[in-house]
C-alpha cells in the first residue's frame, strides 16, 4: 500500500465514495504510521472502499478506457484531478484540426498568396468555434433531459458541476482523432466512427456513475443531446457554413 500515501486518508463524512457500491465513505485508508497503511472497508458492501489507490496510474487508465464503473468512480470521487477544462479545449482543438484538414482536402487551392493563408487560418478558428458550439449544445441536451427525467438528481449547483466535470473528462477519447488522421489510410473514416462511438460510451458511463443511474437513462439523455447537436449542424448548413 505504498502508493496510497499521496492520496490523503481522512476527510469529512461522505467526501469519498466506495467504487463498488457508490456508498459514501469518510476515508480511503487508515495510516498506522511506520509506513503501514490499510485500505478502508465499505460499511455497505464490506469490500475495499477504493482498491485503485494502490494501483499504478497506467492500470487505472486502462480500466477507464475499458469503461469500468469502478475506475470512473475512483477518478471522479476519490482523486483531486483538475484537468477538465484543459482537456476539453485540447479535444476541441483536435476536432477543429480534423475538420480543417478535411476542408483543405475539399478545396484544392494551393495558391501561396497571403490572403489565402489568412483565410485558411480563419477557417481553423471557425471550425473551433463550431466544434465548441456543437459540444455545448450536446451537453445542454443531456442536462435538459436529465433535469426533466430526474429533477431530484440535479437540485444543487454542486451536482451540475460534478456532472459537467464528468462529461468533460469522458470526452478524452477525442484525443485519438489526431493519430487516426496522422496515420491516414483507407480505414480512417471507420476509425473516426469508432472514436465517436467510444466517446459516447464514455459519456454514458460518466453520467451513470455520477448520478448513480441505470444504463437506459444516460443513453436517452445522450440521444437527446445528439439531436440538439445535429440541430445546430443543420442550422449552420442553412446559414451556408461548411461543417
TrEMBL record:
Matching Pfam families: Arv1
Membrane topology: Multi-pass membrane protein
Main localization (coarse): endoplasmic reticulum
Keywords of the record: Endoplasmic reticulum, Lipid metabolism, Lipid transport, Membrane, Transmembrane, Transmembrane helix, Transport
Compartments, as annotated in UniProt: Endoplasmic reticulum membrane
Biological-process GO terms, alphabetical: intracellular sterol transport; regulation of plasma membrane sterol distribution; sphingolipid metabolic process; sterol metabolic process
GO cellular component labels: cortical endoplasmic reticulum; endoplasmic reticulum membrane; Golgi apparatus
InterPro entries recorded: Arv1 (IPR007290)
TM regions (residue ranges): 124-148, 160-181, 216-239
Functional summary from the UniProt entry: Mediator of sterol homeostasis involved in sterol uptake, trafficking and distribution into membranes.
Family the entry assigns: Belongs to the ARV1 family.
Protein name, entry field: Protein ARV
Record gene name: Arv1
